[in-house]
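User: These chains co-purify. Model them together.
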Amino acid sequence: MAYTVPRPKLTFAEKIYLPSIVAGLAITWKHLKRMLTGQTKVVMQYPEEKWDAHMPEHYRGAPTLVTDEHGRERCVACQLCEFICPPRAIRITPGELPTESEFSKVEKYPAGFEIDMIRCIYCGMCEEVCPEQAIFLRKDYAITGTSRAEMLHDKTKLYEMGGVFDGLIHKWNPDK
Amino acid sequence: MVNVQIDGTWLQFPKGTKVIEACSQAQKFVPRYCYHPKLSTPGNCRMCLVEIGMPKMSPDRQPVLGPDGKPEIAWIPRPQISCAQEVSEGMGVRTDSAMVRECRQGVMEFLLINHPLDCPICDQAGECRLQEFSVEYGQGQSRFLERKVKKPKNVELGPRVTLDAERCVLCSRCIRFMKEVAKDDVLGFVDRGSFSTIACHPERTLDSNYSLNTVDICPVGALTSTDFRFKMRVWFLKETRTIDVNDGLGCNITVGARENKVHRVTPRENNDVNGVWIPDSHRLNFKYLTAPERITEPQVKGQAVDWRSAVAIAADLIRSIPSSAAAVIGSARMTNEELFLCKNLIQTLGAGDRHDVVPRIGEPDGILIPADRNPNTTGAVALGVAAPEPGSRLASIAAGVRSGQIRLLVCFEDATLLGLTESELARCTIIATGILPNATTRQAAVLFPSSGSFEKRGSMINIQNRLQRLNRAVQAPGQCRDDWEILRDLAVALGSSQKPSTLEEVFAKMASEHPAFAGLNLGKIGDLGIPLAGISAAPATATLS
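Assistant: Joint model of the two components:
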């Protein structure tokens, strides 16, 4: 069945098009003036100048592992991030905490934790899926390396980047 | 047959069917923890509560019929457990009424009161009934504000089973299994009320050869396998349905592997073979597949060579020795297809009756393990690789080797099992296949690396004359090949015109020559196997209780 597209009724000013061109030129002229008088600055001299201070709270940089204020590595090697990771960048080797450990109630820890930053797409699903608040995307965005091995963040590197995170839930409280 | 109304639909069930089973057959799943079809029914978890009603009776004890001609049902106002009740004529069951839903929610809340909620570390996560039913029938949060009861964690119940009592829902499946199936009543409840826990008899440990089945039937993460503990999350495992090859029964199993590494083996239900159980010794016998000493390259006199030259050298060796001096030590651990090609090789060699398999006889345990510890003795006899009395020709072969009469041995088993010493073996030319090094592989002139049972496909016949199928769970490491491929390549090098490129072709050829397999193929065997007619049972049979 034929469908008639309703056309808008244009005024004479709209039809001759010129007023719109003038309006557009006015905007361009305004910006040119601001540029010439130094009111706007377009180019930022990266890497000497950085925009880091303006980064929003929700910025998704490199994924990192965190320890809490009790000095416990929060990851328990549940491997949910490994499961959810779309590009399969995460590789965890689970291990069992020795009984003499201060945190032996937790029983499990990651003996190995690797994130392949060549694969990582910074989607943040690992952070979202983590039931232990152990993995966070921090604000590091300039992840570079000269070899593939360098781009493979191991556990030490991940904790170094993540650091200590205060005020997370205290789920494995031994008194509870 | 009795008529039962389930959620408004009238259906027929045989007398004696449990209500919970009837509901399952009617596609109305009733959640359960303690009920297990192979065990007795204590009815202690209360998860399977349903509404049950009996037909309304008139004063003259006749059922009152409704407008649809069916009996009217008088519903019992109190919920009933469906696992301990059998169906009866005119019974009505409601599995999804408001009361039933409320009951399930209440039971779930009670079960989770003292639960540690440590799913991120629990090995059962992903196949845990508490998780599943909590999502399906539970509620989103806990109303419990008090302190949870502390119970022992990480308890070594036995050499292979670890207990976390905090996760236990006291369903008593493990207790009943040990008492009723394993016939080793070592588990029980101790303490009372919310402090009640599973414990082992103080002077005993859970060391039965069937102990790991308690881990399988544990609906929660209370009993975990010490071997599998914290190794791999279950959702990563690729599951392959195959059979166990540690004895003549051929328990049906599921192999869980990830990235070409076997992580665990669990039994698979086949009520004609192993029920839903498997011995621990069989279940844990997979570590050899990844042993560092595994043979992964074809070798000629200990030097690694490529397949093509290994096969050519083996064929040359065979041709250089007169057929009267050749013997073949087959294996009842080979699949039917391999045995069929092995028999062809025996004929090509002209080995006469100088061939047999090495029998493995042990003490039957009266539950699942039969005396015959070879998985395919029946097939080896039927396909003619074994002597009609398996092992009866081994002594004469050994004597022939000692006297120098036999100078060529084709070995699919370790020849020292015949009582030959390594120095006696050194005197003859040996062509062998092997998975792990042994005296024979060390002495072999040509050694072919072969595949383990989880690495190959094929079929085997168990002691009940049941044809069952092996499936490949992982790829064999290095340059290992299946025995049938080795035998085929050898046959081609010896001038055979047959060059089957798939296992299916080998099976088809075998089926055309052996009437017992006529009309069959690997697909028709299916996951549960099929009984074979027209084949006589292997001599060493065992009783299966």
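The beta strands of chain A are 63-65, 90-96, 108-116, 135-137, 152-153.
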